[in-house]
Amino acid sequence: MANKNQGIVAVFDVDDTLIDSGAKLKADVVSAFSRLGRAISPEQVVGNWYNLAENYGISREQFDAAFDKRKSWEQSLRGGEVPIFPETYRVLEELKQRGIRTNVLSKSLPEYTHVKLRHLNLAPYFEQVVTVDPKSPSKREGALELMKKLGPETVAKAYFIGDKEEDVKIAEDVREAYGTPSTGIYINRKGNILNGYPSVNSLEGVLGVIENGR
Length: 214
Description:
Structural class: alpha/beta
């Protein structure tokens, strides 16, 4: 008997979806401002960091130069500063048992994404890992590249899962380009929703959405 989940694809963002990287990123931004002689709190690190820098008279170039001196992902991971969400392994294992193909689409430099997946023993769960330049305006090209690697004709339905609007709405581009039934699942651990898409407050909610075929 054919697996009823054959052809279902789940595509995950990494940061703040599979791993709790927000604290490190905020700490890196605070440190960058400190190098530039400005004191800010982690609570101020919201939205676009360049806009925050401009408020302090710091140019994009100055901020980038200071930010690039941050502690590496390897150092932070080894120091336990980037924990994995407690349900991540359990959910990925459950999807694997169901026969669902799991993949990564991350807006991050390739070396950053791969060190995260390798250090936290997540790499074996994923069929394909595609990264998008963090300065790119969209994940569109990465999503289309991923689908091409998977073979659109083999995908019965694709779920794009992440904590940001762009992680989720990329499903529309895939649907338009390939005609593949695609939707997004928005993860917001504070309980916020994204209109038009299933919204859950943990990775465990992803299991129910896929099970119900939403």
